[in-house]
Amino acid sequence: xxxxxxGQIILVGLGGFIGSSLxxxxxxxxxxxxxxxxxxxxxxxxNVLGCLLIGxxxxxxxxxxxxxxxxxxxxxxxxxxGFTTFSTFAYESLALAQDSLYFKMMLNVVxxxxxxxxxxxxxxxxxxFI
Length: 130
Description:
By secondary structure, the protein is mostly helical. Helices cover about 85% and strands about 0% of the residues. The protein is built from 5 helices and no strands. It has helices spanning about 5-30, 40-65, 70-85, 85-100, 100-130. Helix 3 crosses helix 4 (about 85-100). The longest helix has 30 residues, at about 5-30. The chain starts with a helix and ends with a helix.
């Protein structure tokens, strides 16, 4: 691995640490506001905020060219990727739509949801029997 690539890994890793820590703190804080609810309000709030932030920061990076490559890696891939991968999924799906690749966008959404849920279900089933 080259020095540049290793530096990028460090940036993403540091950002991921921050994002994951923030996700844990915010999700728990929000969920404690609804102590008797079985609905995952904490996770939903993290996902919605992450999507809002990645849309905004991605838009700023694209429209104003104000975020350098390392800063984008740290914020978008690291911090927000650690905060919620759902934000990355939403951002990539929107990018496909912006490029008028509507079929690929819908395919991405359907496949990720269906395969993701199927994989989680399969993992649960395997864990029960092994």
